[in-house]
Amino acid sequence: MIKKKYTNNDIYEFLHKEICLTKVMPDMTTDELRAKESDPYFWKNLSELLECFRICDACHKPMIEGFCIDDGAEHYCSPDCLHTQMTNEEFEEQYDNSNGTSYFTNRYEDSMTYKKGE
Fold it and tell me: What is the model's pTM?
């Protein structure tokens, strides 16, 4: 099973940089972003403005890496969240050695931060 590299702090710092670089909304500090952690409407709206992250379908927190199921029908930030809906064996069957429609992804490459090299 694939393990996460990024912590919640990393995610909020990354999103803060993305917001500053893209100017999609007024700059928010990482503490202000953390304060929105339990507001699913905020994250849904922000995810529509920024392509660099998704919302976990189990815990509803922002994610920049995790499991993409059925070409994006569902997203899970961790094995714990993934396993609320399927077993590791079911994921491996859908993953099919990178030939299936489910995979582990890192959204960082879709970000302005990555493209600017910061």
Answer: 0.77
